[in-house]
Design goal:
This is Methylated-DNA-protein-cysteine methyltransferase-like protein. The protein is built from 6 helices and 4 strands, in the order αβααβαββαα. It is mostly helical and about 120 residues long. It has a single domain, classed as Winged helix-like DNA-binding domain superfamily/Winged helix DNA-binding domain (Arc Repressor Mutant, subunit A), CATH 1.10.10. A two-stranded parallel ribbon has the order 1-2. Helix 2 packs across helix 3. The longest helix has 12 residues. It binds a DNA duplex (13 and 13 nucleotides) through helix 2, helix 3 and strand 2.
Length: about 120
DNA sequence: CGGCTGACTTACC
DNA sequence: CGGTAAGCCAGCC
């Protein structure tokens, strides 16, 4: 069955798919890049409701302070930590060092995305 | 139609 | 570092 997403959700998904492996981004950052400043929660909604078929790198998305969106020790958190570890991102005390692994898209990347 | 919720964030104390 | 408050808004009841 086909999923009908509104335009905002489409943009968010596109933006999420821009996150390169080995990097992480925050909900707010994604909302900004998707052209939806202040709508971090919408990003969360999309992630929660998006079908797995989209193969979204949800595990590369964290809170603004680098902490996982899930509570430490939860099943989801552990799965996320596992996947991040696979890409070389280390999670310490349920948090990631945004300075080291945070995604810093270049202006060129953003412009390229806008063209698509 | 109104209220509540939440994979959020920033500011302030 | 923890607690409150306010802003945000789609989706569910």
């Amino acid at each position: 069955m086909k999923q009908y997403l509104n335009q905002n959700q489409q943009k968010i998904i596109q933006t999420i798919q821009q996150i390169p492996a080995g990097c992480v981004a925050s909900y707010g950052q994604l909302a900004d890049l998707a052209g939806l400043p202040g709508r971090a929660r919408l990003v969360g909604k999309v992630l929660r409701s998006a079908p797995d078929d989209l193969k979204l790198p949800w595990y590369r998305i964290l809170r603004a302070n680098g902490a996982l969106a899930f509570s430490a020790g939860s099943e989801q958190a552990m799965r996320q930590i596992d996947r991040l570890a696979d890409e070389g991102v280390e999670v310490i005390r349920n948090k990631v060092d945004m300075k080291t692994y945070g995604w810093q898209p270049s202006l060129a990347d953003i412009l390229f995305k806008l063209e698509q």
